[in-house]
Design goal:
The chain contains 13 helices and four strands. By secondary structure, it is of the alpha+beta class. It has one domain (2-319). A hairpin with a 3-residue loop joins strand 3 and strand 4 (113-119). Helix 4 crosses helix 6, helix 6 crosses helix 8 (182-221) and helix 11 packs across helix 13. The longest helix is centred in the middle third of the chain and has 40 residues, at 182-221. It is globular and about 65 Å long. The two termini are 38 Å apart.
């Protein structure tokens, strides 16, 4: 599957989710000279905020997410409410996504409120202690307001991207005015695109840092949380990697992969970095075996374009908290 070769880049953030559609509108409006740079900036900001407000409805539709009642999932309710009290936040709505791969994600907007979703694959793969640690991670994202933070830091790269392409498009097909500044517009547009990529790398770095922060939050509110989350991450990576080898209907899962606790797109690469847990006796032996692997230069380069930290580095960070 070609999607497996794609790296988790900034195109997985909110700016990239709406990239093609916004670029389409930008080109059309530029051709008819409907607005200037200022109105373009306002348009992109408005479009980003609008999609943030409506994104939960799209996520629910794409991933077959539904809210579960307390009677349906009493253990999940008890766990989320207890960890929410420890986190000092209001308990989010509890959702279940009908996705076979094990994963979880936090999302929401002012229109829907905060939500935490676990997949059916997660409930079938992890034991309750590990699910508790995963929920602690997702509550960390809500406590740190990561959805809002990443949305706002993505607006500036998005502005530069669309302004840059608008200027380059205008310089290529517009008329040369009396000052003959077409080349200057093209240069400014090109520089805007370059700066967009620079800011994208910083945004990706921030995204990886916030994953570490959410891991640390889970370890702080869940008893023996670092070990439980480490084992949960290992099981998620192993199970997802095996599933992607035999299933061809999971391409839609990666659409909002920046929300997940583990990136499904990198599961096969992460699986190559790990060994099967069943060959070791205890959890700590499994974790120590995985964290002894040396990272290559290619691992470091790939991580630069990823929304999530390298799985080995992530396990090592958790190991320090045990």
């Amino acid at each position: 599957m070609s999607g497996l070769k794609l790296k988790a880049t900034m195109f997985a953030t909110l700016a990239a989710i709406i990239g093609l559609s916004t670029l389409f509108f930008t080109i059309i409006l530029s051709l008819i000279d409907a607005f200037n740079i200022y109105s373009l900036a306002l348009f992109v900001v408005f479009f980003n905020i609008l999609q943030w407000l409506l994104a939960p409805y799209l996520i629910d539709a794409m991933y077959s997410v539904r809210r579960v009642s307390r009677n349906e999932a009493p253990k999940l309710y008890e766990t989320v409410e207890r960890l929410s009290r420890k986190s000092g936040i209001k308990p989010p709505q509890i959702m279940i996504a009908r996705i076979p791969i094990p994963n979880a994600f936090a999302y929401g907007s002012p229109l829907t409120g905060n939500r935490v979703a676990v997949t059916t694959g997660l409930l079938n793969t992890l034991d309750m202690d590990e699910i508790e640690a995963v929920l602690g991670h997702e509550l960390g994202h809500l406590k740190h307001r990561d959805v809002q933070v990443m949305m706002f830091v993505s607006i500036l790269p998005a502005l530069l991207y669309y302004i840059g392409y608008s200027l380059m498009w205008s310089s290529a097909f517009g008329r040369r005015d009396e000052r003959g500044n077409t080349s200057a517009l093209a240069l400014i547009g090109f520089l805007s695109i370059v700066l967009y990529w620079v800011l994208t790398l910083f945004t990706l770095y921030l995204s990886r840092l916030r994953e570490y922060y959410a891991d640390r939050h889970s370890a702080s509110i869940v008893e023996d949380g670092a070990r439980k989350l480490s084992m949960g991450l290992i099981k998620i990576v192993e199970s997802t990697g095996r599933m992607r080898k035999r299933l061809t209907s999971l391409s839609h899962v990666s659409s909002f992969r920046m929300l997940f606790i583990c990136d499904p797109e990198s599961s096969e690469r992460d699986l190559r970095d790990l060994y099967m847990a069943s060959m070791w006796r205890g959890d700590r032996e499994v974790i120590e075996r995985y964290t002894r692997r040396r990272l290559t230069l290619m691992d470091q380069i790939v991580e630069l374009f990823s929304t999530h930290p390298n799985i080995i580095k992530r396990l090592r960070a958790l190991q320090e908290l045990m």
